[in-house]
Amino acid sequence: MSRLVSAICAVLLLAASTFAQSKNAPKKLGIGQMATAEQIAGWDIDVRPDGQGAPPGKGSVKQGEEIYMTRCAACHGEFGESAGRWPQLAQGKGTLASNDPVRTVGSYWARLSSLFDYVRRAMPFGDAQALNNDELYAVVAYVLNLNDIVDDKFVLSKETWEQVKMPNANGFYDDDRETTEKAFWNKRPCMDNCRGPVTITGRARAVDVTPEDKGAAAQ
Amino acid sequence: MSQPPDQGSTSRRKFVVGAAGLVVAGASGKAIADNPKNQPPNVPEWTRTLGDGVGVRAYGTPSKFEKQVIRRTVPWLTATPESSVSFTPLHELDGIITPNGLCFERHHSGIAEIDPADYRLMIHGMVDKPLIFTLDELKRFPRANRIYFLECAANSGMEWRGAQLNGCQYTHGMVHCVQYTGVPLKTLLNEAGLKSGAKWIMAEGGDAAAMNRSIPLAKALDDCLIAYRMNGEMLRPENGYPARLVVPGWQGNMWIKWLRRLKVGDQPWFTREETSKYTDLMENGKARQFTWVMDAKSIITSPSPQAPAKSKGLTVISGLAWSGRGKVVRVDVALDGGRNWRTARIDGPVYDKACVRFYYEFDWSGEALLLQSRAIDETGYVQPNKDDLRKIRGVNSIYHNNGIQTWHLKPDGEVENVEVG
Questions:
Q1: What are the domain boundaries of chain B?
Q2: Which of B180, B155, B182 is nearest to B97 (CA)?
């Protein structure tokens, strides 16, 4: 975490814990009902990096292939290469520092939990939360396999969770704008003769991708 | 979001130079058709006949002559409209408040249509007492009214590699500013009681994307709200009806719409939306994460490509500025591509993490100009130019492009989005 963010967090966390525990926390207003264990269980679908929240169940790459072909491939492509303009799920390794980075599960994502949690809540697109737990483990295993992260025999479950090593696990760092972009804080920004002659180096019209104004033209 | 296809069409405006030498621009590409029969000395029909009575317009809409004032989309950006964006027509607006029906939309699985009778908000995890609230119960809590801007982190994301889209609606239209009414999140967390060790909350939507984001508890206890009203009326379905999270100054993706669940925990979740998306890829292939704050930014909304200058002489430059770090304290304007700056006039209220409106009036001789604006906030942050941003971040980061925009105002009044060097 950036120094500033962690500083803020430290200060405010102190406030937070005081807030949480202190006897002078604001009086409770007694509004709302106790959420029952059953109510919570129905909505509690998030999964953390350490696997906390992952449901019981398991699924193999092989089972996942079948589910993927029927439930996912139409949009994401048979090999995760994307059909048309839907998101690409595989390939792109070694492109992140290039002029044309391809961000996929294999090339970019840092954690298994992000994939599992996301597919569990949002996919297949338009039929969310329709897969059962075993199907979910299987299709996630298959997406990992498409990215050469696990082999063809792999079975994903809570027990094998830790074995999954994401290639770009170390590809991220916390916001550091306060230090790397310190120069943007400037008490006396230049007002006069701030630069040499100005030339136009690019034009939106030359690129020509602005939608035509059909709405207004119809009037 | 994908790259543009190679073919497309322009939003070219045609200009008619009238007899008096006045440049007249119609939003539709033709000159505004006027009718001398309605003008002095004649008495127009609307002065002689009765109009609609009360109640005919039970929920009022803008004049039929304002039909061009609409949210617009860029179809090539996304595969499907259910996971896409429509843009605020900034060039048609003034002041600081965005009308509800014009606030940009970003959905990930379409608009959830939630029956308020079935709406529930759950708070659980590291709390003393997990709670569930109905909408009526949320409305029983003491309320707060706050005006905040909301900007999508991907606003201006198509412009990293150069000038692409010709109009501030498209280059900057993923921002809006409204007044929210709701309950401070702090109040709800107090009601549930935080367990010691609690450090983060996860907010989750009730739509088919079940959008989820991790928010540090410090922010949650600082200024976040659970809002159910915008500009006085209930939230629009597009904006999260009946309740959404408000995370002032931070990227719009965190402002979970159709909010259904808040879970308290001791570490971040690293959801897909804070890993695959909303992380900023730098030139070396490493990416910044948790870049929550939206830096100071401004845009001249008029004149602009969709709002050409109509005549020489006194010309009003109008624009919007905002900062996620606090109040905007000053906006400067340049007419020469950033060589010489002059301070614009801020008019209207200046609130923390809200839009401000700035003006710069000048006598336009009709010569070509390169218009720019730069916002300065109360922390001393000065909106950078695009090249200075690119020097640090490269061009692959998609998000957080707050570089200074250049508009080329041409002698005929037309305006084009350009890059300068």
A1: 100-288, 297-418
A2: B180
Sort out which chain A residues have CB atoms less than 8 A from B288's CB and list them: 172-177
The whole-model pTM stands at 0.92
Determine whether domain B297-418 maps to CATH 2.60.40.650. yes
β-strand A200-203 against B297-302: which pairing, if any? unpaired
Which of B298, B353, B352, B338 lies closest to B320, judged by CA? B298
| Residues of chain B contacting A200 with CB distance shorter than 8 Å | 370, 408, 418-420
User: Cα(B26)–Cα(B410) distance, rounded to whole angstroms?
Assistant: 17
pLDDT of residue A8: 52
ipTM of this predicted complex? 0.91
CATH superfamily of B100-288: Oxidoreductase, molybdopterin-binding domain (3.90.420.10)
* Per-residue b or e along A175-205, where b marks 16 or more CB atoms closer than 10 Å to that residue's CB: bbbbeebeebeeeeeeeeeeeeebebebbbb
Residue window 297-336, chain B: list those with CB within 8 Å of chain A. Answer: 305, 332, 336
- Provide the domain limits for residue A85: 49-160
- Could you give the CA distance from residue B297 to residue B213 in angstroms, rounded to a whole number? 24
The two tokens of residue B283 are 């030139």
Between CA B408 and CA B420 the distance in angstroms is 10
Whether A201 has its CB under 8 Å from any CB of chain B: the answer is: yes
Judge whether B68 and B88 are in contact, CB under 8 Å.
no
Say which CATH number the domain at A152 has.
1.10.760.10
Query: pLDDT of A113-160, one tens digit each?
Result: 999 999 999 999 999 999 999 999 999 999 999 999 999 999 999 999
